[in-house]
Write a structure and sequence with these properties.
The chain has 706 residues and is α+β, with helices and mostly antiparallel strands. The protein folds into 4 domains: 185 residues, Penicillin-binding protein 2a (Domain 2) (Alpha-Beta Complex); 337 residues, DD-peptidase/beta-lactamase superfamily (Beta-lactamase); 40 residues, no CATH class; 64 residues, Trypsin Inhibitor V, Chain A. Helices cover 34% and strands 25% of the residues. The chain is built from 23 helices and 31 strands. The chain is elongated, with a radius of gyration of 38 Å.
Length: 706
Amino acid sequence: MEVKKDILWRVYLIYFIICLFGVAIISKIFIVQFSEGDKWRAQAESFSTKFFDIEAVRGNIYDANGSLLATSLPYYETGMDVNTEAITKEIFYDNVDSLAYHLSNLFKDKTQKEYKKLLITARKNGDRWVVLQRGVSFTQMQQMKKFPLLRKGKNKGGFIYLQTNKRERPFQFLAARTIGKLNENGTGKSYGLEVAYNNYLEGISGHRLMQKIAGNVWRPINDDNEIEPEDGNDIVSTIDINVQDVAENSLMNCLKKHGADHGCLVLMEIKTGEVKAIANLTRNPKDTSMYLENLNYAVGVATVPGSTFKLPSLVAVMEDYNVKLEEKVEVGNGIYFFGKDKVADSHRPAKPVYSVQECFEQSSNVGITKLISRYYSRYPQKYIDRLYKMNLNSTMNVSLPGEAIPYIKNTSDKTWSAISLPWISYGYETRITPLQILNFYSAIANNGKMMRPMFIKEIRDRGKTTKIFEPEIINPSICSQATVKKAKTMMEGVVIRGTGKSLAASNYQIAGKTGTAQIGKVNGKMLYQASFVGYFPADNPKYSCIVVVSAPSGDAYYGGVVAGPVFKDVADKVYSTSLEIHKEINSIQPKYATKAPVTKGGDQKELTAVLKKLNVPMQSNNLKAEWVSSITKDSTSVSLLSKNAEEMLKHGLIPDLIGMTAQDVLYLLENNGVRVRLFGKGSVAVQSINAGSSFTKGTQIILQLI
C-alpha cells in the first residue's frame, strides 16, 4: 500500500511539472506574439536577404560614320555605414573632418560643417546607412574611392555604392526623335530606334545578393555581383550626323522665319533606301520662338500631300493610256468648275492651253484635274487601282514604330462623290506620310524600283559585326521605263522653267516638285502646307529629299519659296561632301561653246547689252519694246518677249509681271501709283492682281518672288 502511494505521488509530481512546463511555453508564446512581436519581427526583417536584378549596360547607337548618337553612362548612389564594426570611435573622429572637407569640395552642395554634422548625427543614432550623394558620375566615383575612410572599402571603411545607367545623347537634340527613348519607369512613351531594336540593345540583366539593414535599406552583401550582367549589342544607323546637323538647322531657321507650326525633312539614298537625315520640329508651346523634336511627322502623321501628288496621278495616266508630254490641256484663265465646285490655279496661266509637261511644271490644278477626268471619269476605279499598284495605299513596314496608315479613297467608299476623282488627282481627299511621298519619288529616280526605307545598317557585339541589314525591295517596278523617262523629264522641267526655279544649282541639277496644300482655317485665315520633294543630281540620281512646312503664318506659303530653300541647303551640303557624286577631273572634257545663262525679264536694252557681251545668241519678237520676259531655249539661246508693260500701265491696266526682277517691278509700278509688297527673292512667280486687271492709284499688289 505504501509503495502504491509512493508511485502515485511521483506520477502526480511529474504530471504537475509537465503542466507547469506547458503553461510556461504557452505564456512565452503569448509574450512573444503580442508583447514582443514587433521587436522580433523587425529583427527578423533586418536579417532578410534578397536577389536584385543588376541592369546590363545598354548598347550604343552610332551614325553611319561611327559617331556616337546614344550611349549609357554609369551613375552611382553612394552611401556609408558609419557604424560598421571596423570603424572605431577613434578612427571615425580622426577622419570625419577630412572626409567632410573632401565631400564638400567635390560636390559643392553642402559646407564642410554640414557634411560633418550629417556623419556625426548618423553615428550617434546608430544608423547603418547614410546617403552621401546620388547621381555621382564615374569620374567623381573614382575620386571618392581615394577619400579618408572611404578608401578602405566596404568592410573596413563602410563605403557602399550602387550603380545605375543613364542614357545620354552626345549630340543632344540632333535626330532625337529618330534615336528615340525607352520608357522604363511606366511614364511617357517609347519611340524610335531605342524601341525598334531594343532586343539587341538591352543586354541580359545580372543578379546581386543584398541584405536589408536597419531603416529598411538594402545593401550588397558581397563586393562582386553573384551573376554579372551581359552588355547589350551596338547598332549602326544609316544617319549621317553631319548632314543631320545641316538639315535640322536649315529646317529650324525656315520655321522661325515663316512662323510655321511644325515641319519635317527626310534625306534618303535612292539605290538602298538608307535614310541619311530625318528632322521633325514642332513649335514649343512654352516658348513659341523655339522648336523641339516632339513628334515624328515624317513617319507617323499622314496628311494632305497637295501638288506633290500630281506626279503619281500623271504616272498613272501615262501608264494606263500612254499619255504624251506634248498632249494639250485647256486651262483657260486657271479656273474650272466641276458642277458647283471650283478648282483654281494659284496664279493665272501664261496661256490658255498647256501641254502636260507645262501643267506639271506650272503646277496647274485645272490642267491636272481635267486631264485625269478626261481619261478616268467613266472608270474612276481604274485610276484608284493604278495608285494601289504603285503601293501608295499601304504602309512601308519601316523599322521605326508608329508608322501612319495612308488613305486613298476607293470608289466603294461611302464618301466617294462626283468631285472625288478630280480632288484626289491633285492631292486632296487623301492622306499620306511625307516619307511615303518621298519613297515614290525615289522609286522614279531609281528607274521604277521602290526600296524600303532603312534606318539601321548593322549590329555589333564588342566592335565585331554580327548582323548586316541588306536593302529590301518593296516593288521591283512601279511603272514602265517609258513612264519613268517622262516623269524624270517633267521633274527636271519644274526646276528649269517651273515653280521650282529658285532651286536651280550651278554645279548640279535638281529634279522635283513643289507642293502647296490648304489644310484648314483658323480665325478665318486659310492655313497652308508647303513642300518640295525631289532628287539630285538629276542626270545620275543619288539622293532624294522631302521638306514639308506646315502652317507658315506669314504671307509666303508656296512650296518653292518656303520649303525649296531648305531642300537646296541640304542638297548643297551633300553634293559638296560626297565625292562619289562628282565626276573625275580628268574625265571632264572641255566645252568651248557658250552656255546660255538663266536670264530674268527686265529692260530690253540692258538685257541685250549683257547677252551680246557674253556672246549668247538671242532673238526678240519686238525690238522696240522696253520691257520683256526671257526664255532660255535648249541652254544655247535666249528669246525676249515683249510685255507692253508701260503701255498697259498708261491705260490703267496691270501688266504681266511674271519673270521680272524686284528692281524692275518696283520702278514700273510705283512710278504709276501702285503700292508693291514683295515676298521671297529672285523673279516674280505669282502676282495677286491678274494681268489685264484695272487699277487706281494707291492700289496694292502682292508679288511672290522665287
